[in-house]
Amino acid sequence: MSHTATLIKFNLNGRPVTANVESYETILEVVRSRFGLYGARESCGQGLCGCCTLRVDGKVVTGCLLPAIKADGMAVDTIEHMEVDGKLDIVQECFIECAAFQCGFCTSGFLMMSRQLLNENSSPSEAQIRNYLSGNLCRCGAYPEIIQAVQLAAERIRIADNTQVLESTNAAE
């Protein structure tokens, strides 16, 4: 039995790329094996733990379940894309500051989900954070620190947003 690879084209972390993929390969396998982006990991292989979280066309997905062929023409972002020009995203900074990880295996998934949550809701309650992150598992039990890091990031994002509003208002006057 022979397999026929399919050429797909997609944007990976803002860059156009191509890859020959087999019908059975997931987008997670492709970004790891073809492009050396190892931040997202496969753990459960069933979309239940969140370690494989990627953003596809602006929405978080479980990379271990998405057939690579479905990513053709889409924008795929990995945890490596959160850092911009050597500067960590505010969520990453807060995770470090709050020691919101131990072994780090699940951290990229929590970071991707936390950033998505804060993009959608810059002022989530603790219950909303817990609910949003409920699909991510941390075997080390860093949940209190993770919640604390997301709350701190939300606070800093709100402060930054308020500062930008004040600066643009002052500039307009």
| Largest sheet properties | 5 strands, mixed
Topology, number of strands: 5
- Judging from the principal axes of the Cα atoms, what is the shape? globular
Class inferred from helices and paired strands:
alpha+beta
Give the fraction of residues assigned to helices. Answer: 25-40%
Terminal CA distance: 72 Å
Radius of gyration: 18 Å
Order of SSEs, N→C?
EEHEEEHHHH
Number of helices: 5
**Average pLDDT score:** 93
Strand sequence of the main sheet, in spatial order? Answer: 2-1-5-3-4
Query: What is the beta-strand fraction?
Result: 5-15%
Instruction: Give unreliable regions as ranges.
Output: none
Keywords: 2Fe-2S, Iron, Iron-sulfur, Metal-binding, Oxidoreductase
Pfam family, one: Fer2
InterPro entries: 2Fe-2S-bd, 2Fe-2S-bd_dom_sf, 2Fe-2S_ferredoxin-like_sf, 2Fe-2S_ferredoxin-type, Beta-grasp_dom_sf, Diverse_Oxidoreductases
Organism: Pseudomonas petroselini
Key traits:
173 residues, alpha+beta, five-stranded mixed beta sheet, iron-sulfur, metal-binding, (2Fe-2S)-binding protein, 2Fe-2S_ferredoxin-like_sf, Beta-grasp_dom_sf
